Amino acid sequence: MAFDLFPVSVPKPDGVADVAVGDMDNDGDQDVVSVATRGGQLLFHENANGEGAFFASRRIAENVDRPTSTLVADFDLDGDLDVILAARGAQMLTWYENDGKGVFSDQQTLLASDNPLEGAASMALADLDGDGDMDVTVATLDSFVWLENLGDGEFSGPIRIARSVMLPSGVSTADLDGDGDEDVVATTALDSRTMWYENTGEGIFMARHMISRDTKFVTAVATTDIDGDGDLDVLTTSFLDGAIVWHENTSGRFHRSSQVGQMNGISDLAVVDIDGDQDLDLVASTSTVDRVVWFENTDGQATYSDGITIQSNVRNVRALDSTDIDGDGLADIVLASYSHDVVAWFRQSSSSPHPITRAQPFFVSPADPNDGIDLPTKQSVAAEIETPDSGNAIAASDVIFATRGYENLPSQNDKRSNRKQWLRSESSIQDVAKHAGLEK
Predict the structure, then answer these.
(1) How much of the chain is in helix, strand and coil states, percent to nearest 5?
(2) Which pTM value belongs to this model?
(3) Spatial CA neighbour of 138 closest among 403, 434, 404, 401
(4) What is the pLDDT of residues 159-185, one digit of tens each?
(5) Is 288 helix (H, G, I), strand (E, B) or coil?
(6) Contacts for 82-89 with beta carbons within 8 Å, 24 or more apart?
């Protein structure tokens, strides 16, 4: 079944840099929050009917200096999802309290520019001190820190996990050693390290454990059990090598690393059960060849297929998240394009040979008609709203695409003539860092 593009909201975001998903207004469906870096905005896109039609975007914040990434969570434990925003230009972390109906407060500062937050681009949420609320872990320009949630939306100052780090590129949290607390997984770009910091309890990090030094210029990190053996593994992506690497966890020790996917210029990675077979597949985006690809976990033990292209005509897709946008149990895809200035979603066709195929996306936010994306007629949009695809339900999630703080990864047009040479060149890693938006 073919799908038309579905423009559903205004204003047009300028330079979409990240998205997060959740039921922001407590009406039972999944909404989208996006970051527009060039426009300096944090936007809320409300799912109007539970089937993926969206109301006009509403501004949560504007005139923010280079906002880069966002997360949603119930920070004040009042039963609704609040929003946290990292702004690299302002060198601040701020959060916005939700009243439960998708109406947000003015900004409340977690961490101001007079604290060591220069270059913050990656965040993770977990209860690091075991007190029942969500703390925030941040990768800054040269350190990893965490902020303790003190309750009622109040946060401590930054608590150092590691300092003097060579350009941190990602952070995640998971109980890697099975002792009941959340550890921190961290990656660096300049010296290509993947490591984890052991939480000894109550948010005290005493030991660093090396996972790998071989994944060049890591752009994304994820923690999950992809081989089904009951412990949490680590996945990383290399922007330079185009490799998706699985680091197998054995009781907190990482002795084996295997490449499970290949895709040039990977910008981000999502782990989700795309095909509903109860194992975890991979979805990757790239900014250099304008593709979104998924890799099927064929045996539930981390044996992956070659990449299957989902879309290849939207520029600068950079980051991934997952949820069920239209409530049909199928794995839909939401996409944010930094170059096309759009947030859009792909609905899965139940009749296709692969659970996800190349399809026309439905817009969460509109594209410029001059950007090479064909807009639908009013009739096609109305017909799609009136007759949604019922399909054969597959227990799966949807996938959300955007960027996670890397504003300047080179686009296809930027490097069209010498993309391969650029990716494989011996140019300095500092120059690559500038292209990837990891260095100011």
Answers:
(1) 5, 40, 55
(2) 0.80
(3) 404
(4) 999 988 888 889 999 999 999 999 999
(5) coil
(6) 82/153, 83/20, 83/33, 83/42, 84/110, 84/123, 84/136, 85/35, 85/42, 85/61, 86/120, 86/121, 86/123, 86/138, 86/405, 87/120, 88/119, 88/120, 88/121, 88/405, 88/440, 89/64, 89/65
